[in-house]
Amino acid sequence: MPVTAIVAAALLRVVDLDRVGHELVSADPWRIGAMLATWLVWLALRPARMRMLLAATAPQTPVGFNDAFGAHALGNALNGLLPMRAGEFAMLWVLNRRAHVPVANALSAIVLDRLCDLAGAICLLGIAIAALPARPQAVADGLAAIAAAMLVAVLLVAAAVRMRAFAVVMVGRILPLRWRAKLLPRLDALLAGLSVLARPAVLLRAILLTGAIWTVTATSFTFGIGAVWPDVGLAPAAFTVGVTALAFLVPAAPGGIGIFHAAIVFALSFFGVPAEAALAFALLTHALTLLTGLAVAGLWTLRNGLDPRRIVRDRTAESGPPG
What we know:
The protein is an all-alpha fold. Helices cover 79% and strands 0% of the residues. The chain has one domain. The chain is built from 14 helices and no strands.
């Protein structure tokens, strides 16, 4: 919350809120509709990738599109309301309790899903950096360094998967003795699940679906930015998507409030978009994605007769009485 408050206060010092309001009121409704349409396509593509990953990590437990869609819908909605990616637990709960996927297999698929997003963000940002007009060298170097650090993280995970036994032994040496019996088998199962991405067929499908997801995301941003500032094309939108993906690595309030908006203003400043128009787009896309995400999750919950309080009750029952 302090990080969010500082960023939000700094952002408000450089924008005219009256102009932001004017940009929002005068936004092109047709482009807003196009942004919403592509966002709904995004909501459908992500469960498709999750089903593909689950088919590899848990082939013994087929998962229908409805359950995969619900897992992503609830996870996305809760990530917009709660901090620290709390929505991932809702995804795990739906996959385990509704689709009966073993926890280790479901967790492997979720981690793989996030690794695919991380790799996609790295590629998108790397391509978009080259499109920066008259970019300050310090900014380009800084963004390249962040992208390189993210790539190193992905490679370290890949190395741990490939040398699973060695990685488990090394972690076991670090962990306190009382935790080893509980955590090491889970780590071994997780790494075994992650190893499915080494299969050429699975990797190819993951690359194709991830490319489609990030292309749709950049297209949605193109329509949204165009609603308030029509002279911006796909390359600036792709760069903005890459920067906002990095912004979610910073601890922030639920939904990235403040951090998300500042990242968009920062990214679009390189393409001559005024801070007021950029902030208007940030507010517009944040409200649109949050409200539609909550609506879709709510409709799925009602349609499937699911009481959200069961997640809390089940978790409490699993933890047992204290002491």
